[in-house]
Write a structure and sequence with these properties.
There is one protein chain. By secondary structure, the chain is an alpha+beta fold. The chain contains 17 helices and 22 strands. Strand 19 and strand 20 form a beta hairpin. Helix 2 packs parallel to helix 3 and helix 12 packs antiparallel against helix 13. The longest helix has about 50 residues. It is elongated.
Length: about 650
């Protein structure tokens, strides 16, 4: 036999040893016998038996003492007591210590009873071990489930909580067992109502909610939102005796949904306020009415008590009160504000904008139009508010819309100005992103030229005779490197110009010029670039070279960004081909990056839509790309698969030859 599978008989009567060994032989267990309590304890220390047959009266100690010593050591096996005579007190004492049964040795039926009694106990032990194994296995299943599993009894006590539940709630395993769930894990704001509903359910007067969400408290007091699914556990009479619940922690999901909803509502607010100014010929009276209406909507959105607009005067030395909306429940203190000196607001000097990531009851948003400070949009709340980055951006955009309405006579002109600003902002962002690559591109020839002059200086200082042929080669190479720098700098100057008239341009040349600015960044990211122009007969169209270059730089940048989570063999592929029957030049721009979902593809050309983290994308790049391509009479479509990549297909009409 292996492991524990033996029976230990402890008795100082060798006749009992013989009876036990012969009677229990057919059980299949090894039978081990000893005569003293000390021998029994030593044997059990070495190997715990499946069953202990223990005489109550041993030469060195009582059987009860043996059990007590084993309890201290945590080694008590299942045991059966053997006594020399029937004694109720001995039987009660040993049963209280955990004896499974007892046999009287002096009884004439001892030999007949020992085998069935032991067999019954061994069967009991086997069933109990199997049940424990099943219980352990069931607990393992509960612990690997990625949700909270909770059982509450009728007294609101926790009778089961799995490993995931303890992890989410921040407690050690077992720490909450037997505790009142509502007292330990529910915030005071909802506790009483939830207890009332639970008590009604247990009294048979309520209906179990199969699904619901509520806030729970962790050990540190942090609030988490849990989505619960519930089922009732019923007794023999059909009464509810406990409730089993599975809970999914949806805290981060709900936060993300709330932020997304807030972003959507912000964009809707921007659209609504923009619509107030559409197709209206602005005059002083109309503009103030429209602006006041806009401030009212803005106040409702941010739950503000007051919104007001301050505009810079002509010499830009003071902010003058221009328009306001005020709740009827508070005094209109803004009327007392006649003007504010620019010097009173030092954080507005230059191009700096105060960082507003703290709780304030009054916030002043600088309003810039075409990179020039024009005024302040001020929002006041009765209680302090945590102003998020998206809130600041929304206020800035709305402030620009309102201020634009005051600066121009017609909204169409204002719309055009804002498009110019958006394009300029995107171009500046592009220059910023490619700056590292351009600097590296320029640094290489500068390093060569610097080394050349340092070597020349050393040769002259040491009076060495110069190798004219070698020096001539180095001068030629130096001039070539200078020409390389001039080419890059001249192209940067061209790219930075606002307007370039349309003319016949080569798409291949446009791509090459784009790579002057973005190519080094592609190389530094170890991205393989494949460009195939073999399938097109002509690549010339009529267009604005500067704008078309912006298209390809934006596409290259998006492709580079798609490799943030995909590092193995990144590739960008660009194919040019002709469809002479339709007079079209077709460009397929592909990457094998992270890809996008279908619903994301449908939105990527919308203004302000971005899949990038806050602060890492304006949501204008592809919107501007779409506008430029359509302005050139072309089309752009997107096809993408998550984890496989994205392909943009662009078409342009060919330019007829001169």
């Amino acid at each position: 036999m292996k492991g524990k599978e033996y029976i230990l008989a402890v008795d100082d009567d060798h006749l009992i040893h013989t009876i036990v060994q012969k009677t229990l032989k057919e059980t299949g267990y090894e039978i081990v016998c000893c005569t003293t309590g000390k021998e029994a304890i030593d044997l059990i220390k070495q190997r715990e038996p499946t069953l202990l047959l223990l005489d109550y009266q041993l030469p060195d100690m009582l059987g009860s003492a043996v059990i007590k010593i084993l309890k201290i050591k945590g080694l008590v096996p299942p045991f059966l007591v053997m006594t020399s005579m029937e004694n109720l007190e001995i039987s009660v004492e040993m049963m209280q210590l955990g004896a499974l049964d007892y046999l009287v040795k002096g009884n004439q039926n001892f030999i007949k009873l020992i085998h069935p009694t032991v067999k019954r106990i061994l069967r009991h032990i086997y069933i109990e071990e199997e049940m424990n194994r099943e219980k352990e296995m069931a607990q393992k299943y509960l612990d690997i489930v990625g949700v909270i599993l909770l059982v509450l009894d009728a007294e609101q006590r926790i009778t089961l909580l799995n490993k995931e539940g303890y992890s989410i709630l921040g407690y050690k395993e077992g720490e909450l067992t037997g505790k009142n769930w509502f007292d330990a894990c529910l915030p005071n704001a909802i506790k009483n109502e939830v207890i009332r509903v639970f008590e009604q359910l247990m009294n048979g007067k309520g209906t179990l909610a199969e699904e619901y969400e509520n806030v729970v408290l962790t050990k540190t007091g942090e609030e988490k939102i849990v989505h619960w699914k519930n089922t009732a556990i019923r007794g023999k009479e059909g009464e509810i005796i406990s409730v089993l619940s599975s809970g999914l922690d949806v805290t981060e999901k709900r936060k993300a949904e709330k932020q997304l909803l807030h972003q959507v509502e912000s964009e809707k607010l921007i659209s609504e306020i923009s619509a107030l100014f559409l197709n209206i010929e602005i005059n002083e009276k109309d503009s103030i009415n429209i602006i006041n209406n806009s401030l009212k909507r803005l106040s409702a959105f941010f739950n503000a008590s007051r919104c007001y607009l301050l505009c810079l005067n002509e010499d830009k030395s003071k902010f003058v009160h221009k328009a306001e909306w005020c709740s009827q429940y508070i005094d209109q203190k803004v009327n007392k504000i006649k003007e504010i000196s620019v010097d009173d607001l030092p954080y507005l000097k230059g191009d700096e904008i105060k960082r507003l990531h703290k709780e304030l009851d009054l916030i002043d948003i600088p309003i810039y139009v075409l990179n020039s400070l024009q005024g302040l949009l001020c929002v006041e709340t009765i209680t302090k508010k945590l102003w998020e980055e998206n809130d600041i951006r929304t206020l800035q955009v709305i402030g620009e819309i309102i201020m634009g309405a005051l600066m121009i006579e017609r909204i169409e002109h204002d719309k055009k100005m804002m498009e110019i600003k958006a394009f300029s902002t995107s171009k500046l962002a592009t220059l910023g992103e490619v700056a590292t690559g351009v600097a590296h591109e320029i640094n290489q020839p500068l390093t060569y030229i610097s080394c050349f002059f340092q070597n020349l200086e050393i040769e002259l200082m040491e009076g060495n005779e110069l190798d004219r042929e070698n020096m001539s080669k180095k001068v030629i190479e130096g001039n070539r490197q200078v020409g390389r720098i001039i080419t890059i700098i001249n192209h940067l100057r061209t790219f930075g110009r606002e307007e370039i008239p349309k003319k016949r341009v080569s798409i291949k040349t446009i791509i090459d010029n784009s790579l002057l600015l973005i190519g080094e960044r592609i190389r530094l990211k170890n991205i393989t670039l494949n460009i195939d122009t073999s399938k097109n007969s002509s690549d010339e169209i009529t267009g604005n070279a500067n704008q078309l270059e912006q298209v390809f730089i934006n596409l290259f940048q998006n492709a580079i960004d798609s490799f943030t989570q995909k590092k193995e063999r990144p590739e960008i592929t660009l194919n040019l081909r002709s469809d002479m029957d339709k007079n079209l030049l077709i460009i397929e721009f592909s990457d094998n990056g992270c890809g996008m979902a279908k619903d994301t593809c449908e939105k990527i050309f919308e203004p302000f839509f971005t899949t990038k983290e806050v602060g890492k994308g304006t949501g204008l790049g592809l919107s501007i790309v779409y506008g430029i391509i359509h302005e050139h009479g072309g089309t752009i479509t997107c096809n993408s698969t998550i984890n496989e990549g994205t392909t943009f297909t662009i078409t342009f009409p060919y330019s007829p030859p001169p």
